[in-house]
Design goal:
The protein folds into 2 domains: about 1-80, no CATH class; about 90-185, no CATH class. About 30% of the residues lie in helices and about 25% in strands. It has helices spanning about 1-5, 70-80, 90-95, 100-115, 155-160, 170-180, 185; strands at about 20-25, 30-35, 40-45, 45-55, 120, 130-135, 140-150, 150-155. Strand 7 (about 140-150) and strand 8 (about 150-155) form a beta hairpin. Helix 4 packs antiparallel against helix 6. GO terms for molecular function: beta-tubulin binding; microtubule binding.
Length: about 190
């Protein structure tokens, strides 16, 4: 596996096929599906671990299964095994057709984290302008649009009006940090 990762392009996981965020009382799950592998990152306290994975070619990753690590350690170990899920500037430039306004992207991540909104990617996100993000919330496409610089219109329907079903003991900042590193809104199609 190490020899393969030396010669492969580091963007073969892009664009992401889909992703999903689920909040629980003691943990947050972020499932990421690429063309090659499916990973479930679980955040407990301020640690990350892989919960499930598929793709026989990444069987070496099984030694990371449920092993708690910091975000930087997890990224380093994934990249060592040829799993590049952190977009760099070249990858973002290559997939610029699905790039969103950075301020809108940050606002969306904060909204998800602070309000503990269970959501997932939506294929419609790739078809709308850079000023709009489309997510699937409660099984339906919902959007956030830039009204003017620093002002946003959030259309989450009833899902946006609900109070939290539970208070997660995981800090929202930990998930926000993870989302800013993986940036799933950029390259999901």
């Amino acid at each position: 596996m190490g020899y393969v990762s030396l010669f492969q392009h580091n963007d073969f996981h892009y664009p992401y096929k889909s992703w999903q965020i689920s909040f629980g009382k003691e943990k947050i799950s972020f499932k990421l599906h690429t063309n090659v592998v499916e990973l479930a990152f679980v955040i407990e306290d301020s640690y990350f671990y892989l919960d499930t994975l598929t793709g026989d070619e990444f069987s070496k990753l099984r030694n990371l299964h449920q092993r708690k690590m910091s975000l930087s350690e997890l990224v380093m170990k994934l990249e060592k095994h040829g799993v590049h899920i952190i977009p760099n500037k070249d990858i973002i430039k290559k997939h610029r057709d699905t790039k969103k306004d950075l301020d809108l992207e940050i606002f969306t991540y904060r909204l998800i984290c602070l309000n503990q909104i269970d959501c997932e990617s939506c294929r419609m996100n790739a078809t709308v302008s850079v000023e709009t993000v489309v997510l699937t919330v409660d099984g339906a496409p919902r959007n956030i649009t830039t009204k003017s610089p620093g002002k946003y219109v959030v259309n989450f329907g009833e899902a946006g009006k609900k109070s939290k079903l539970h208070e997660s003991i995981v800090t929202p900042a930990t998930l926000f940090q993870f989302l800013m590193v993986t940036r799933p809104l950029i390259v999901t199609k």
